[in-house]
Amino acid sequence: MNINDLQYYVSLSQEKNFSKVAQQYHVSQPTVSAAIKRLETQFASQLLVRGNPHQAITLTPAGEQLLAHANEMLYHFRLATVEIQNSHRQHLVMGMPPSSRPTIFQGLPNSSRIIIWRTWIRWKKDHCRH
């Protein structure tokens, strides 16, 4: 089981059609089928009731349970991705015209003023070369 398997499963529960899910993710229909089979093997349960090719699929009770958990897992996966990506940002870079400095720095502790001022100077040196 992998994150793509869960994404295909959640989409399949909404679309009710293997081909549409395959198109949505730009994969083949057998790729989606294999993902669902992996999930069914992992949980030792049938998750979907597949009708004839012209009928939409439906979720079994086990499939409904997995759907609730899959949505939670995907939410937490996206949340972790954003948090980890944002953890690489170490400082705020901002530029401002000299006339706005007194207004912006007013009320900040001196240590914060120094950090903001040094950041602005560093940004100016990097971006405003003549």
Our Rg estimate from Cα atoms comes to 26 Å
Uncertain parts: none
Element order: H for helix, E for strand: HHHEEHHH
- Got a strand count? 2
Give the overall silhouette: elongated
* Spatial gap, N to C terminus: 55 Å
Helix and strand content put the structural class at mainly alpha
- Biggest sheet strand order reads 1-2
* Assembly of the depicted chains: single chain
Question: How would you concisely characterize the structure shown here?
Answer:
With 130 residues, the chain is mainly alpha-helical. The protein has six helices and two strands; from the N terminus they run H-H-H-E-E-H-H-H.
Structure, explained:
- With 130 residues, this protein is mostly helical.
- It contains six helices and two strands.
- It has helices at 3-15, 18-25, 29-43, 61-86, 101-105, 110-127, and strands at residues 48-49, 58-59.
- The chain has a two-stranded antiparallel sheet.
- Strand 1 and strand 2 (58-59) form a beta hairpin.
- Helix 1 crosses helix 3 (29-43).
- The longest helix is centred in the middle third of the chain and has 26 residues, at 61-86.
- The radius of gyration is 26 Å and the shape is elongated.
- 12% of the residues are buried.
How are the SSEs ordered, and which strands pair?
Elements: H1 3-15, H2 18-25, H3 29-43, E1 48-49, E2 58-59, H4 61-86, H5 101-105, H6 110-127
Antiparallel strand pairs: 1-2
